[in-house]
Amino acid sequence: MGGLPCPRCAIAERKGTTLAGDEEAQSRRTRRRSRRRPAHPRSGQGADTPVRQVAQPCPRCSISSEAMANEPPNRARTLIGVGEEVGVTFSRRTARWTTTGGTISPTEGNTVLFTAPDRAGVVTITAEGRGCTSTITFTVIEPSAVLQRRAPGTGIKHTHNKPDIGMMMRVYLAPDCVNFQHVETIEEEVDAVDTGCYAQIRTRTHSPSTSPDTCTSHVEPGLGTRVYARDEIYSGRPSGSPPFAPGSRIWNIPVKFRVRGGAWRQFTTLTQVHTLAADGTTLTCSKGGGTSPAIQVSDPTSDY
Questions:
Q1: What pTM did the predictor assign?
Q2: Buried b (16+ CB within 10 A) or exposed e, 196-223
Q3: Nearest to 263, CA basis, from 81, 85, 117, 99
Q4: Backbone conformation region of residue 109, classed left if phi is above 0, alpha if psi is from -120 to 50, else beta
């Protein structure tokens, strides 16, 4: 027998159809609103607020560098001396340049000039252009020592039958891995410590030059940047006649440096020594690691 339709089943079927239709309609409305509403990178940002494009580090761009001085030969090095000048170039044409130390000139361009600061440190240079950024880092060092060697072609200063001795010296700023051509140095005044025959010399001052010594652009391997001026070292001449009491003259000389126009800073102490040996006849002198050959008090008079 065919039964009559159940009213409760019919109601349930109608409710199911209505719910399914409502969900589909709601989904369509949500999709339409999503298409109309712009996406914002920050919560609460208005639809008309412009989004700033921040340049990101880009593997497609880079900075190259070339030291302006020809010596030492590795001009692409990132270890540089105080005051040293380096050309830096952005691989993607014009850029805006900034630095954490020293100076950049100009601050916009493809290749610009970086001048290192006058004190040691680590400096990072940033170039930003065409939506990319790139950085390069330099390590800046100060002079570590003054080295001296007897100047080629010069003689030994000495007076026959006197315990005096002197030399003409070439001067270098170490180390030799950077260029210090924009550095100046000056020695400070100091008295000698005298013993033996040298104690009679009344003038004990060192009497250094009052003008700063400037540097060349030449870097001597194993020594450093050569200083323009040469240094005359001399014991002074005790009076009297042989035999002389063995002894020595020793100056411990403070040395300062600065990048031209900057502030002075002491960085080393340079020892200058003149000696009459225990035999009373052998003479030697030295300064900054440079040592004279031994001569005798009885040797003939000679000059630098």
A1: 0.80
A2: bbbeebeebebebeeebbebeebbbeeb
A3: 117
A4: left
Taking CA atoms, 221 is separated from 29, 66, 76, 151, 178, in Å, by 79, 20, 18, 16, 11
Residues 159/177, Cβ–Cβ less than 8 Å: no
Note the CATH architecture for domain 56-141: Sandwich (2.60)
d(CA 159, CA 176): 37
**DSSP per-residue codes, 22-46:** HHHHHHHHHHHHHHHSPP-SSTT--
Measured in whole angstroms, how far is the alpha carbon of residue 201 from the centre of its chain? Answer: 43
- Residue 206 has a pLDDT of 84
* CB atoms near residue 231 (< 10 Å): 22
Closest CA to 148 of 126, 121, 122, 166: 166
CA 206-235-153 angle, to 5 degrees, is 105
Task: Profile the chain (304 residues) by mean pLDDT over runs of 10 residues.
Answer: 43 42 51 47 46 60 97 98 98 95 98 98 96 96 98 97 98 98 97 97 87 97 97 96 98 97 96 98 98 97 97
Phi-psi region of 267 (alpha: psi -120 to 50; beta: other; left: phi over 0): alpha
